[in-house]
Amino acid sequence: MTATHRPLVEVKDLHVRFRGERNVHAVNGVDFALDRGEVLGILGESGSGKSVTLKALLRLLPEKRTVISGQIRVGNEDVLALEPEALADFRGKTASMIFQEPMLALDPVYTIGWQIAEAVERHEKCGRDAARQRALEMLERVRIPSPARRLDAYPHEMSGGMRQRAMIALALACKPQVLLADEPTTALDATVQIQILLLLRELQRELGMAAIFVTHDIGVAVEVSDRIAVMYAGRIVETGKVADIVRRPSHPYTRGLLASTVHGAMRGKRLDAIPGAPPSLNEAPSGCSFAPRCKEVLPECSQSLPQAVTVSPAHLSRCVRSTPVTA
Amino acid sequence: MVSLAEPVPLIIAPSRGYWASVGQRLLRDKVTMVCVVILLTIILAAIFAPYLGLADPYRGSIIRRLRPIGTPGYLLGTDEQGRDMLARLIYGGRLSLFIGLLPVFNAFVIGSLLGITAGFVGGKVNAAIMRTSDVFLAFPSVLLAVAISGALGAGILNSIVSLTIVFVPPIARIAESVTTQVRSLDFVDAARASGASSWTIIRVHILNNVLGPIFVYATSLISVSMILGAGLSFLGLGTKPPEPEWGLMLNTLRTAIYVQPWIAALPGAMIFMVSIGFNLVSDGLRSAMDVRR
Amino acid sequence: MSAELLAPLPDVGGPAQPLLEIRNLTKHFPIKGGMLNRTVARVNAVDGVTFDVAKGETLGIVGESGCGKSTTARLLIRLIEPDQGEVRFDGQTVGTDISVAELRRGVQMVFQDSFASLNPRLTIEDSIAFGPRVRGVANTDAVNKAHDLLRRVGMAPEQYARRYPHELSGGQRQRVNIARALALAPRLLILDEPVSALDKSVEAQVLNLLVDLKASLGLTYIFVSHDLNVVQYISDRVLVMYLGRVAEIGPVESIYTDARHPYTRALLSAMPSMDPDRRTQEAPIAGDPPNPINPPSGCLFHTRCPFAEAVCKTTAPALAPVGESHNAACHMEIAGSGHSRAARA
Asked: CA-to-CA distance for C213 and C222, rounded, in angstroms?
């Protein structure tokens, strides 16, 4: 370990393009860093590139159809350079992922206990009994009632919330350093969602993991994150501490998103909706992608990609109107 | 009328109808287009055979039997009775394609009718139609075709009837499953909620979405139908000599296989080419029709 | 003829008459299984639901998945036949005073899945004009009406009328669905999770549109959603459903500030806080909603309720008044129910 500060996860100038009948420039220059034990929420609408960014971190995108450039470092691993064997070790052991739909992520033909034990055996090279013991511990940890019995349950025998807990147990079984969560509570009911969010927050603290939480729901991002990165059209347009983003949003898109997020206090008032729809991303953006929908657009917005401006400590915004903090 | 909502941005791409965009995609698919050209050539040649200046496909000659391919005057040689192979192959396409296409077309009409009815009405009607078709599906198609043809007696008409019976159940099955799927979509509920009759819903909302996939499946059956039809002729249950028909030709040339193997293989090659052609067109059609989302 | 068919329905009962009265609406779905396809279990999707919808109001229906809110919506417009119960539209009983077809002139529905609710083979214009056409409106009139409605929902007909659903964005498709629902000039619009599949910025556009349309056309809404924020924004009254029954119903302010049913309170406190300094510290209730195939006895909520007592396991509580036009189905609110927190009779 070096004495200088080195974040656990570092992503530099990440670009992801999907080839096919049409090109889709899904991610267009994403940079971020994540420290040990830190939780980053990536907030964005559908097509903003938030899930693609997350999947790139585990190299889960279909290799033949995707062109990835840039740098991804997790721990000591250069993720984009990993050989297949090393990549398999990396997934699940260094970084692991939970998904929106546990029914699709869990294998329907094996029991929960078998699937967890399998992962533990593979990564920790331990015996079957020890692995099963770990599986039981994990089910207790995620607070599945009567865990010993649930070890032998199949995914379809569990309710939605229980399945999501089982998937968390599977993801955390090998004590990864980073947990990647892709809309883990979107498919759940409100009363179950809050339980899962609290559980994830607690486990993250206990295990000292770093986590990246992708969501479209500002409320969810606020509940779990230390920092929030707001994505639009494949770029992070604003990033900062949760309080900065929610109370002092700088980028017009973040402000628009907050203004159009409905809550009770808005009753009877007209919602300040962002007009229009997100761009199609068939071509790489050459200026600010939000300019066509922006109420404060300037002529220079579409001329070049806006640079990140530090608007307050650790709070960056990519907008030509943002004024840098006077140090 | 004043617009009440925020302006919605323009879409620049021109709008095409569904079938127009399917056609466009088909035109860009090289494999499918090559197959279409080959099939069209064979079909047109068969239709216009009398005007192509070919030899008489029925007139044989004892002295010119089994001439090899490339013999002057006999481009593809002659068969075991000295008849011109080129003429017989082209004329043979008439019956072979007829036997390949007509049963599938019949089955497409009858099977779609049964399957869409079963899928749309559901309940007991569905059970009655689908269980009956299951009974037919339990038999291997070759066996079923031979059995029905045998029971009805030899002849072109009877082999078409038997092949139609063979193809109705699988088409009905596909039609039923596609219809059930479409019927559960919200736009059918929305149509019901707007007061449309069942007949209108079937006509406007079901047929439109269901016939395409059934048609694709039916085209994939053409090759099976051709092979089965040829098989029936081969067994003497279909066409009778001296009619030129690929399956029958394959049978009668069987004896010549040690003398002129290439000539004996020609009718088989035609069957092979046409079936592969129809299968590839069916595949191309399927992927071209998948333009949703 | 055609002009008459497209004219809005007359107000029959006057402003005091509720537009829709639902009495004891019930639907049980059989679960088939076994060799002979026999009924092995039943899902009580909707179980004795009773409520009114006043003219010009928006009634929000909230609840978790499987609570029967979407089934209720479909029962109201008879896309599903109810097992029991009565629906009165403007004082007229459906089935005796008016036919289902007449009901569907007055009540229309917008579905959640904007893609599945449009026929992919029809142009936008044809989809909207379909309803008027089947009601005998002349073709050109129906098309003009469709263009008119497209303009109303903020989509230029010159640009969109001849397009197909897959060429539009989700928000645009949902506008088309709203236009289609309005094509028969209904008085009541049932909106089944109309914005749930949309992005936040688009959701706000559609909500604004719904508010504007309601004001300009004098509509009444039933707004079904799982999103409590959206329901609070748009509704005048809120109905909370749990496992096919009404748990609580009342004016939106009373429900959101003075909820009386423990389930409503749990739902409300499960909402993310939006304030980083006041994050939720404890989940209001544990566990998942029970399986509707084998619902619990008595009060359906007793398996998750922190206040459950003996009476809750045995007796199902009836809706009881707890405030100004505010009712809750909880033994704690029923005097003499036997619950220790209830007032003595």
From this structure: 14
The answer, yes or no, to whether residue C1 has pLDDT greater than 70, is: no
From chain B residues 9-38, the ones with a CB under 8 A of any chain A CB are: 9
Domain span including residue B157? 84-289
Give the gap in angstroms from C-alpha C131 to the nearest C-alpha of chain B.
Answer: 5
Q: Which of C65, C69, C200 to mutate to test the interface with A (most CBs of A within 10 A)?
A: C200
Residue C3's pLDDT band (cuts 50, 70, 90): very low
Domain membership of residue B64 (yes or no) is no
Q: Give the relative orientation of helices A128-141 and A160-172 as an angle to the nearest 10 degrees.
A: 130
Q: Which of B1, B2, B3, B4 to mutate to probe the C interface, most C CBs <10 Å? A: B4
Count of structural domains within chain B: 1
In a domain, B37, yes or no: no
Confidence of residue B1 (pLDDT cuts 50, 70, 90): very low
Q: How far is CA B41 from CA B46, B70, B221, C291, in A?
A: 8, 21, 20, 62
**Does residue B119 form part of some domain?**
yes
Tokens for C31? 């679960």
What would the DSSP string read from start to end of C27-86? EEEEEEETTTTEEEEEEEEEEEEEEEE-TT-EEEEE--TTSSHHHHHHHHTTSS--SEEE
Give the C-alpha distances (Å, rounded to integers) separating A163 from A107, B138, B274: 11, 40, 52
Query: DSSP class of residue C246?
Result: E
- Is the bond preceding B242 in cis, omega lying within 30 degrees of 0? yes
Amino acid making up residue B16: R
Q: Are B175 and C105 in contact (CB under 8 A)?
A: no
Rounded to the nearest 10 degrees, how much is the dihedral formed by the CA atoms of C167, C170, C176, C181? Answer: 140
Q: What is the pLDDT of residue B8?
A: 42
3-state SS of A242-297 is HHHHHHCCCCHHHHHHHHHCCCHHHCCCCCCCCCCCCCCCCCCCCCCCCHHHCCCC
Most confident region among A134-138, A274-278, C94-98, C236-240 by mean pLDDT: C236-240
Whose tokens are 């986590």? That residue is A211
C59-75 pLDDT, tens per residue?
999 998 888 999 999 99
- How many helices (H) and strands (E) are present in chain C, helices listed first? 12, 12
Contact with chain B for residue A273, Cβ under 8 A: yes
CA distance C77 to C105: 10
How far B7 CA lies from chain A's nearest CA (Å)?
Answer: 7
Is B68 inside a domain boundary? no
DSSP A222-235: HHH-SEEEEEETTE
> Given CB atoms, is C294 within the 8 Å cutoff of chain A?
no
Give mean pLDDT, residues B60-79: 74
Sequence-separated (6 or more) residues with CB below 8 Å from residue C276:
A222, A241, A242, A243, A246
Q: Does the CB of B6 have a partner CB in chain A at under 8 Å?
A: yes
| Residue of chain B minimizing CA distance to C119 | B187
pLDDT value of residue B291: 59
Which chain C residues contact residue B122 at CB under 8 A?
A: none
What six digits make up the tokens of C62? Answer: 């909230």
CA–CA gap between residue B67 and residue B259 (Å, rounded): 10
* From C104, C162, C168, residue closest to B194, measured CB to CB: C104
Nearest-angstrom CA–CA distance, A239 and A312: 11
Residue B135: give its domain's CATH number. 1.10.3720.10
Residue of A48, A260, A274, A290 to mutate for C, most C C-beta atoms under 10 A: A260
Determine contact: C124 vs chain B, CB below 8 A: no
Q: What is the pLDDT of residue B12?
A: 39
Of all residues in chain C, the percent with pLDDT exceeding 70 is 97
Residue B84 or B11, more confident = B84
Residue-by-residue DSSP string for C98-155: B-HHHHHHHEEEE-S-TTTTS-TTS-HHHHHHHHHHHTT--HHHHHHHHHHHHHHTT-
Q: Are B146 and B232 in contact (CB under 8 A)?
A: yes
